[in-house]
Amino acid sequence: MNTVVEIKDLRVEFPGRDWRERPKLAVDGLNLQVQSGEVFGFLGPNGAGKTTTMNVLLGFVNPTGGSASIFGVDVREPIARQRIGYLPELTYYYKFLNTEELLRFYARIFSIPRAEREKRIDAVLKLVELETARKRLIKTYSKGMQQRVGLAQALINDPDLLILDEPTSGLDPVGRMKVREIIQRLKERGKTIFFSSHELGEIETICDRVAILHEGKLRVVGRVDELVTQYQCNLENVFLKIVGFQPPS
Amino acid sequence: MNNVIAVAGVVIKELYRRKDFYVLFVMTALITLVLGSINFFNDDHIVRYLKDACLLLIWISSLIIGITTAARQIPAERESRTIFPLLAKPIGRAQLISGKFFGCWMASGLALIVFYFFFAIISASRDHSLPFLAYAQAMWLHWICLGIVIALSLLGSVVFTAPSSNSTISFIVVAGIMFCGRHLNGVAVNIGGVRGDIVYVIYYSIPHLEWYDIRNFVVHDWGTVPWTACLGATIYGAMYAGLLLGAAWLIFRKRSLTT
Hints:
The structure holds 2 protein chains of 2 kinds. Chain A has helices at residues 50-57, 99-109, 114-127, 143-155, 173-188, 200-206, 224-231, 235-242, and strands at residues 3-14, 24-35, 39-43, 65-70, 73-74, 84-87, 161-165, 192-196, 209-214, 217-223. Chain A is α/β, with parallel strands linked by helices. A 6-stranded mixed sheet of chain A has the order 6-7-8-3-9-10, sandwiched between helices. In chain A, strands 2-1-4-5 form a 4-stranded antiparallel sheet, covered by helices on one side. The mean pLDDT of chain A is 85. Chain B is built from 11 helices and no strands. Chain B has helices at 2-17, 20-36, 46-79, 83-87, 93-127, 132-159, 163-180, 184-191, 193-205, 215-219, 227-253. Classes of the chains: A alpha/beta, B mainly alpha.
């Protein structure tokens, strides 16, 4: 298996708002590898450093120390993002564009040839079931539809690695089911998926391996079935034990 | 270059799908037409006042379009979070800044073509002449000036988080340069000493936007500015726009963007 994502001794510190405030350590010495073709769940309570790590992988935040690479390319190089698709937690797209125009714009950034571009747009719109709404302005879409536009834009370049930040957050059960189905289909097609979620049941059914982050540090990483066997409980309880949550007696 | 063109295309689409340009154009046209319908004091040269008023409105409208469009680019992308899916693609921050600049500049250029076409019609219908070269030169210099103004506003858009504060500051700076820029060397001579030297430094470091305002040549039919001067002003404008965009990139390239 090839290593798709490699994070070595990653450290991210955010400066304080003024000189009196100490810098905030968001990620502390993180080491992680994601292999080709696996679905990797990135878990942790709010503020654990999941989104910061994803932001480093996407080049939004520069690490204070350590390094991160995607397909062997340093994440600070724009070319590292040529083979990835990213779905942010909250998806807002240009309100004055319709879905087709938005996808065409993103396809141009990936330098997809014009003839292929239209085929790709048709294919992703079919996959996310938005073919009939392709000419509608995105601002008229429901939240679930906007999330599917997000998935469509993440898939426009037929990426080898998908980075999904809480892809089902805020969706109704039908919306969640649809997004989960799409992730499942991508998994069957051999795509590498790196995603964070608070839906542990969802993680348990979809993911091959998980990593649990707490207070910026990696607490555990391993196969879901192995963790469940090791801790003798389901993934939710594994998670609660690791983050030190004591249920009320 | 492909990325720059793609980003610029979205900025142009934004301009023509927003109402700003249409409102400003209709207001300019209405005010000019109302002024044109009245003949004050039976003045034979009233057409000059009309041309002057129309050109002033075009300058104000174009500055509003250029500054407000450029000022909101980066802050609006961050506020609406559209910057995240965009920068998650193989596009560099320098390309994003360049694309935003070219989009705003092209969009304001398209707006200028419409405005100057309207001006030419009004002028030809009243003056019975159409000095095409003079109008084209005035429009070209106006467009170069807008290039500097847009680069300045884009620099502001990576420094200030609120588009409104950036627009206000950009308007004050541009108006200050246009009204006071040409007098600064005179002020420096009068003050003298170290303070005079400081004013001189300001005089030589600010982009002299007033050089691009050749409304008097158009209004009084003085013909065209020498083409060598026009070329010099174009190079000078390109150099300033490049410096301002470079500064914008230097600030933006290391900035952390947190989702």
